[in-house]
Amino acid sequence: MPKDILYKHITDLITTKYKDITIYACGGFVRDLILGNEPKDLDLVVTSNPEVFARELSNILESNYFVLDETRNIFRITYRTSDDILNIDISELVVSIENDALTRDFTINSLYIPIDKLFAVDSIQHILDPLEGFSHLNQRKLIVVSETVFNDDSIRLLRAVRLSEFLDLEIDNQTKKQIRDDAKLIQNCAPERIHDELMTIMSFDSGTMNAIKQLNNLDLLFNLIPELKLGVNEDQPKEHYWDIFEHNVQTVGYFENIIHSNNIDTWILDEIYWNPQLKDYFMNDNISGYSRYSMVKVACLLHDIAKPHTKTIDNERIRFKGHHREGAIISEKILKNLRFSKKHIRGISTIIDHHLRPGQMSHEGQLPSDKAIYRFFRSSEDFAIDTIYLNLADYLAARGPLLEKQEWIDYVTKVNHIYLQGTKQQDDPKYERLINGRQLMQELGLSTGPIIGTILEEIQEEVISGKITKYVDAIQYAKVILNREQIDKEK
Fold it and tell me: How would you class 339 by CB atoms within 10 Å of its CB: exposed for 0-12, middle for 13-18, buried for 19 or more?
């Protein structure tokens, strides 16, 4: 059921059932209706007990309800259809609309429409606007409703940046000052809520880099991820255009531009291998409720997080030995603190650990061997493709305006080859395994154990390189490996 029809169905039910109660749609729902955007959730205020209302409405909708905010007496109904989920948030209208508006976050979210007028032809004429939110929306301004907004709920600090970037609004100067003054309050917010706001920002089709820069300008970013601050003004080798911190941020932007083919020179994009399946892979392959695209952007922001910890200067040359491995460890800690899922932590840390590999798998001017590509895809597990495209963004963010066309062509030729050959190895029947673990144990009289996996992987590497093509040759090579392992064990 399309959402507009779903909303009308629910509001018609409410209007029919609750004729003696004053009910208003409000908040982001009304804001999005005015902007012509599809509202995500339905926000209601009622002149009755909100819990009783939520319980009765959830029964009518055959759904569940729960306490969303005990302090502010807000309840949520989660209404599930065959293809969507709609949240209905219900709070009590205490005293007056004017009073209720002052408990909200921004003036553009302090708009109200009587529920029975919501889908009327002239619904805009029925808007109640005690804080001039409609005018501010037309002016593209984001303004807080009071000085206590962020003290009342510190997640609003992040919400300000999200709404500003997503709706193309300018945060007014007084609100900016208030955000900076209250920035440390974000540390008191539940990490689960911070995670959700951050991942919403990471899910933008474009604009995530701009949002990150705004978080930094408003003194929020380092209160969220203090480890990033160590990269500010930290020099890199002369091949790099930006310092460590700005390089991390720019990598997010270049990754967005690669995936959506915008805001980047045509001669750069033209060299990168691309197909429609890749767009689907990044945008629609869901991991823990979010796209791979949003997950990789987190990896982009954190990929060089360990450079300040590993920096050395050897004969006047700056080096960051092992920063990829250390970065994977540091990122795991950061992500655990922000309540990222285990799948996201594994994916992001794996990408960071392997992000240098595509550029280091062969000497300059040479293509990587099939065996090297196989090992890369094997060790990076389900995240090889993610790592490849982060690597391209990383290279662009390293060189910046210094990038030369032939240099880029040479680099991308290698990375394209890694992608094409690696995916071919996964799909081409000629690269299928010649032998499985059970057959190996039967042929060599072995019991289960780590040696089985070791032998199978070494055989597969030779299959990939074309040196073994027959079952009998695989068995013979397995005997060689087994003999070698036994000799090593005896030493």
Answer: middle
Contact 64, 78 (CB under 8 A): yes
Q: Under a CB-based contact definition with an 8 Å cutoff, are residues 234 and 307 in contact?
A: yes
CATH 1.10.3210 matches 225-427? yes
Rounded Cα distance between 390 and 384, Å, is 10
Task: Note the residue count of the chain.
Answer: 491
Q: Are 171 and 140 in contact (CB under 8 A)?
A: no
* Measured distance CA(207)–CA(183) in Å, rounded: 22
Amino acid found at 54: A
pLDDT truncated to tens, each residue of the chain (491 aa)? 566 677 788 888 888 888 888 899 999 999 998 998 888 889 999 998 999 999 998 998 889 999 998 888 999 999 887 777 889 999 999 889 999 999 999 999 999 999 988 888 888 899 999 999 999 999 999 999 999 999 999 999 999 999 999 999 999 999 999 999 999 999 999 999 999 999 999 999 999 999 999 999 999 999 999 999 999 999 999 999 999 999 999 999 999 999 998 888 999 999 999 999 999 999 998 899 999 999 999 999 999 999 999 999 888 889 899 999 999 999 999 999 999 999 999 999 999 999 999 999 999 889 999 999 999 999 998 999 999 999 999 999 999 999 999 999 999 999 999 999 999 988 777 778 888 888 888 888 888 888 898 888 888 888 888 888 888 888 888 888 888 877 666 65
Reported as type and span, the H/E element at residue 23 is: strand 23-26
Q: What's the CATH code, domain 1-139?
A: 3.30.460.10
Beta strands in 274-382 (DSSP E): 286-287, 290-291, 311-314, 317-320
Q: Which residue has the tokens 């389900």?
A: 382
Is-contact 204 254, C-beta < 8 A? no
Q: With beta carbons less than 8 A apart as the criterion, state whether 234 and 223 touch.
A: no
The residue written with tokens 């450079």 in the block is 307
Residue 320 token pair: 């960051």
- Please give the span between the terminal C-alpha atoms of the chain, in angstroms, as a whole number: 70
For 315-436, strand residue ranges (E) read 317-320
- Name 42's bridge partners: 88
User: What are the residue ranges spanned by the domains of the chain?
Assistant: 1-139, 140-197+207-221, 225-427, 431-490
- Amino acid, res. 350: T
Grouping H, G, I as helix, E, B as strand and the rest as coil, residue 157 is helix
Torsion sign (Cα): 429, 431, 435, 436:
negative
Contact 190, 277 (CB under 8 A): no
Q: Which CATH architecture has domain 140-197+207-221?
A: Orthogonal Bundle (1.10)
